[in-house]
Design goal:
Blueprint: H1 6-50, H2 60-81, H3 85-100, H4 106-132, H5 135-143, H6 148-178, H7 190-201, H8 204-234
Helix pairs in contact: 1-4, 1-6, 1-7, 1-8, 2-4, 3-4, 4-6, 5-6, 6-8, 7-8
Subcellular location: Cell membrane
Membrane topology: Multi-pass membrane protein
Keywords: Amino-acid transport, Cell membrane, Membrane, Transmembrane, Transmembrane helix, Transport
Length: about 260
């Protein structure tokens, strides 16, 4: 029998369904982490394609191919940023079976939907991160004979990654919360589990209070960990430049101490 007090009912639900809540939270984290990771890979690919430079001296074939690729990538970004993830999940999971006779598993559909949705947002983030790097970096790389691919891999992307790291973390936090829409295709994540527990005893307020606290714990812990990662990527405040030029000081930049004032 359910206790009469609010906290008593919460304690009762945790005792009876604590394992179910934890299992649902675990599924939520798996989908969010995998979806964010794959979405970042998609976003980097799309973002790089969108920033391919086209010069007037390039051949007509290259201009045409790059133009077509950029148009396709722009359509992808606008479509998946302009439609809700819930609608995308319904369309992909049920539409693929109806139109193309492709029977996806629920888990594959969940990873696929979160990945392509995150990829659309990350594509614009990556594009902005690449454009935020000073043009002098690209010109210097070309001056020493680097190709566009070498410049992107060795010079531009490492700097862009540091700039867009906060947005990657933000997308992970969003995905932790937005995985609840996947309950519409039957994924047993935290929201789906909470609905089942609430419906069993009609304790909607108590059950969703537990879910709300669990979502907050997940997002708060992830945000703190990502903040630490950002801090690590910033590097030390004071450092010496390592050089191999024998004409320069062996330790790079050197700060001479101030002379003591003569008495």
């Amino acid at each position: 029998m359910l206790p009469e007090s609010f906290w008593g009912r919460i304690q009762y639900l945790l005792q009876q369904y604590g394992t179910s809540f934890l299992s649902g939270a675990g599924n939520t984290m798996i989908i969010a982490i995998v979806g964010t990771f794959l979405g970042c890979l998609i976003g980097f690919i799309v973002g790089i394609i969108q920033t391919i430079p086209v010069d007037q001296r390039d051949s007509t074939v290259k201009k045409t191919l790059v133009g077509i690729l950029k148009f396709i990538m722009a359509c992808y970004v606008e479509f998946f940023r302009g439609t809700p993830m819930m609608v995308q999940a319904m369309f992909i999971y049920y539409g693929s079976a109806y139109l193309f006779n492709i029977n996806m598993s629920m888990w594959f559909a969940a990873f696929f939907v979160v990945s392509i949705n995150t990829g659309a947002y990350m594509a614009e983030t990556v594009r902005g991160g690449i454009l935020s790097v000073d043009e002098g970096q690209t010109e210097a790389a070309k001056a020493i004979g680097m190709t566009h691919v070498q410049t992107m891999i060795n010079v531009i992307l490492p700097q862009a990654l540091r700039n867009i790291m906060p947005q990657i973390g933000n997308n992970l936090i969003i995905n932790i919360k937005d995985t609840c829409v996947l309950s519409i295709i039957g994924i047993v994540e935290l929201f789906y589990t909470t609905k089942g527990v609430a419906g069993a005893y009609y304790t909607y307020f108590e059950a969703f209070t537990i879910a709300m606290v669990m979502y907050f714990i997940l997002t708060f812990v992830c945000s703190r960990l990502l903040r630490l990662l950002e801090h690590k990527m910033e590097g030390p405040q004071n450092y010496d430049l390592a050089t191999t030029d024998t004409l320069t000081h062996t330790s790079g930049l050197y700060s001479y101490p101030k002379k003591k004032e003569e008495k």
